[in-house]
Amino acid sequence: MEKKFPYQQLLDRVNQSSNITPNNKAGLNDFLTYEHPGDVLFTKWTEPPIIERGKGARVWDADGREYIDCIGGFSSMNIGHGDERVAKVLYDQYMKLSHWFDFPTPERLKLVKRLAEITPGDYKKKVRLALSGSDAIEIAIRTARNYSKKTHIISFYGAYHGQNIATIGITSAGSMHRWYNPIPAADHCIERFPYAYCYRCAYDKEYPSCNMYCVKAIDKLLSSTQTSLGNPYTKVNNIAAMIVEPMQSSSGYIAPPKEFLVELRKLADKYKFMLIFDEIQAGMGRTGKMFAAEHSEVAPDITVIGKALGGGIPMSAIVARAEYFDEMAPGYIVSTYAGYALGCAAANKVLDIFEEDDLLKQCTETGKHLGKVVEDYKNAHPVVGTYSQIGVYFGIEYVLDRETKEPAPAFALELVDTLRAEGLLVQLNGYHNNRLSFVPPIMITKADVDDIFAIMNRVTEKLEKKHDII
Ligand SMILES: Cc1ncc(COP(=O)(O)O)c(C=O)c1O
Fold first, then answer.
1. Tens digit of pLDDT for each residue in 193-213?
2. Which of 77, 78, 134 to mutate to test the pocket of ligand 1 (most atoms within 8 A of CB)?
3. What spatial distance separates the first Cα and last Cα of the chain, rounded to whole Å?
4. 23 alpha carbon to ligand 1 midpoint, in Å?
């Protein structure tokens, strides 16, 4: 039989479908023919739409079909699509100055001061700007290793920190590792531990009687001689930093107990390594606070921000204790577009909009309503095992049986695909591909929440009946 490349199989599927409307079909053909296709949306939807425009929390495809957007550029579009205030700033800044290489502009100076001010940590900070989340995490790791003169990084199972050569090793999402062998950083200086994903605790403990055993387990190993992370008896410590998402996002929007970060901070202080919080996805207001770690009242030594910082324009930042950057010679990090005036102007306007629209308050208020609606949804549908929800950060986990917690990945896949057909775009992920993550713009209203759950309830009930889940 003739061997078909995966993209050709997708192309066949698209062309044989009678549901895909003409402009979407033409776009999918071009995509599969002319690009190296990122297949993310194809793994969730049989018939992904080509999205052409957006406004607020709604997007429209190439044939004019409207959707509620609960993907939001995977947490990039927190202020919503098509904000005219950002558009105006971009136009004005472009006409004034778009980019000036490797030296500050007034917009850039304004932004770094603001970022130092709004990030958690009551200490002197310095900032380095970058373009993507992966860029920024890479710089955070280089910074930690350079300052500590140590190599090892602790990360967590289920973590996503990026997909370049420096970050793929600490990203432990298995689906990413299919394509990377060998992974340089993972060869000898990355150590992973289970995250506080309490619904499926790796240690089979129950929260809260577990007393945060997942952190105690790390402590037990660090206090022994049997890891490459060091030897307390000979005072060897190889750990530069621990990197953690305050809430674990790409693995399914999982919020750990508040004590998790508190205990990790104590561990970092005890063993004297840096704590890096990756706020790239959970930060920028999604949880109702500017940074997710604020819910635990814990400050890291380095905060990494990305995605929504630029409101759709690539921008990321590393905010660290000043002494870490002071240890680096000027020129240690350089990148052509880092800190470009246009991106800084966009980010400054995004921060203004948080103030102008009181977005954190609005997100908290919407979150309260959402909390009630999700709880009702869980109670109405036996296929829902659990959910995490703080502000508009929320993920729902689907199971075949609430007692056994047997994951329901096929149900979740059919659900996400049917939701798309019904006009709701949601992310499928999870440790067992059985969670839906909702990543709407954080400016959604209570009415939007009701619209989302009108579709959710209708479709979930239909599929539960179809699959005899009662
Ligand atoms: C928590 C987290 N860190 C890092 C990244 C990498 O960011 P980027 O895709 O901009 O490189 C992502 C992307 O999804 C993320 O969710």
1. 999 999 999 999 999 999 999
2. 134
3. 43
4. 30
